[in-house]
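Data deposition worksheet. Section B asks for the primary sequence of the deposited chain exactly as it was used as input, without tags or linkers unless they were present during the calculation. Section C holds the resulting structure in token form. Section D is free text for depositor observations; keep each observation to a single sentence. Incomplete worksheets are returned to the depositor.
Section A, Depositor: J.P.
Section B:
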Amino acid sequence: MRAAAVASASVTPTTNGSASLTNSNHFNFTSHRKICTSLPLPTVKNSHKKSTFVVVRAIKDRKETETETETETENMKEYNKESTTKQPQQPLSLEDVNPVGLGRKSRQIFDEVWRKFSGLGQISRTTRADDKEALDALLIREGPMCEFAIPGAQNTTVLVVGATSRIGRIVVRKLMLRGYTVKALVRKADEEVVNMLPRSVEIMIGDVGDPSTLKAAVEGCNKIIYCATARSSITGDLFRVDHQGVSNLTKALQDYNNKLAQLRAGKSSKSKLLLAKFKSADSLNGWEVRQGTYFQDAVASKYDAGMDAKFEFTEAGDAVFSGYVFTRGGYVELSKKLSLPLGYTLDRYEGLVLSVGGNGRSYVLILEAGPSADTTQSKLYFSRISTKVGFCRVRVPFSAFRPVKPDDPPLDPFLVHTMTIRFEPRRQRPVEAPAGAKQDLRSFKLILEYIKALPTGQETDFVLVSCSGLGVEPTRREQVLQAKRAGEDSLRRSGLGYTIIRPGPLQEEPGGQRALIFDQGNRISQGISCADVADICVKALHDSTARNKSFDVCYEYVAEQGRELYELVAHLPDKANNYLTPALSVLEKNT
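Section C:
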């Protein structure tokens, strides 16, 4: 059983007060106030009297100087000339300034900055008329707040979908405190919605169910955090928000990336590379059907019971690879030598995605790598894939391929020149079928739509807050999960780097107070704070271990003895409180 991970998100008291703000939506600035009051400030006793005296004396001195200048102009010019040539200029002393006035002014500036900073942590913004210009000027001049700033955040624009939801509101403020440029997508910008968001957020009006309204929203965006969810259990709303909405946004972001790439006379690094598309009879050219057996020739004839396979383009417009294998130890396969566009190599990609259909059989995907000029030096690498009844998309990362000979080196995608899809009767499992229906696991049918290479990358492009199913009413749980899973599948096959978070039941309480469990396999049983989920969303944006991973997360709980579902990941509290990297490093990708 694969172990999940626990990462401690507990808050350790510090002198700078950063831990409580990093993981909580209930901000605590007590330690900041201590720092403020511990600064040596000048005494203000009789300050009005001293200040008045200084001002009066300055006016009096200026008047006397003007009088002397009018009556003794020539003497002053001569004196100034001699002073310039004979004596160096005297530096400014403390007697020439008013320390009380400077102290008072510095405190006024500090209090104003602190008031603006504290206002960012409020759930609803202030309605003062003079706040907008002052706050925007402060953010532009000073940049990200304190030590919460993240390198590269000032050059990153994040679109938050569902910014007024329980998680979205916290996500927006965490992004702002770290220096990101934030855009919020809302269906309507009425006064209630506008007042829920800080002034520095750019509000975009659009509907995730209408692709035409999303082009302007993704303009200039680098990443997307999707926190929206359907407010009703009506099937149409679930499909529009949780499934079609995710699909529309991924396509809009891909189109925007391709548009930028075309302006640079290139192709987007986030675009998939088409290796094969089966749309006509001519697209089958170059594919070869072969048969074989794992036994030696002397023994093979003893178990030869017949096998056959064909690859054809049907009248329905499908490319179908079908047949049967009755021979013990036999197999049939479909193979082709790859022909990549000029200037493209597979080392720039992280895996393959196949759009296939059929009767739910499993297959072996084989890649042959080596010098194309001398195939005798080629090495074989394989990975097993499973399909479903009907159409599905199968992602196979290059890291999942293992050498046929254990002594061979790991797969180098740069050297791949041939691809093979093999069917063998062994290790086949029955699929769900109507009661009484017979299944012959020795026959197969595979409908091929396309084969593409998935682009590589270091960071996540799209963070999706999904659902684990816990806390949902039993009467609507199946509908909700079906729509959520469909949205997840559309994100996985988009080619974008993704992180899918499935939290337990959401709770309105401070974050960072309890340890968290990160698991895969729908085994969690506890809830989690909205603030903790928001913190995971923000941390996943620049964490390479979060790319292309789906996981469940909830509060830590004690499992029954002998049924432990996770292992503890050691985590030393640090300033950044980066618990996500050790927690996700043990989880599988592309699941």
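Section D:
The longest strand covers residues 443-455.
The chain has a mean pLDDT of 75.
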